[in-house]
Amino acid sequence: MLRLNIAYVHNKLPYRATGFSITELLVACALSGLLISVVASYAAQSHVALSSLQHATSLEEDMRALKSTISHHLGRAGFIEEANILSPFIALSSGHSPASNVALGERSTEPLNSCITFSYDKNKDGAISQSQGELFGYRLNNKAIEYRINGNTCEQGGWFDLTDPETLSVTQFSANRIYKSSWGVAYEIKISLQSIIDTEVQSHESFIVEVPNDS
Predict the structure, then answer these.
(1) How far is the C-alpha of 139 from the C-alpha of 70, rounded, in Å?
(2) Of the four listed, 25, 96, 175, 203, which is most buried by Cβ atoms within 10 Å?
(3) Rounded mean pLDDT of 87-94?
(4) Is the predicted pLDDT of residue 63 greater than 60, yes or no?
């Protein structure tokens, strides 16, 4: 009988539940929130860095394309195919064509020497022809580099965009003669680009184009 009473009393002892206390739960929630905040912040920074890298890469590709295009065409200024002379590079002002040699100018709203026009015999038929698209040029106009169409002057409209004004801003474009010799003239081209989406992304380039027999 004594043993039964002891067992009965033992079974009546209060039950102590196991698990986390309110304090422990609050601490765990705080630590989880902090961890989530750190991960989210890192993810956001990584996204911004990746986006900036993509814009920078795109801008550098645009700059390389501009440099290649301008160098290729400007370097051939004055070229006329001639079968009876040693050098096909002759001054256009020598009477072979009514076109002029390399000329510098600008629109009234743009900086000095922000437009360059020239011509060459692209199809090698021995003449400069407007109908064949052989009157070339590049200019700065309203934060974009444009290329010449139909022999228009630096002041005239009708030029086409070479750069995309929706994605990048051209903050500088200039062409200047830096020296002249018996073989021709060297021009220094300066270009500065800025991303419109991320204004911190910029690119600057200065390069020299040698034009044989430019006068």
Answers:
(1) 11
(2) 175
(3) 51
(4) yes
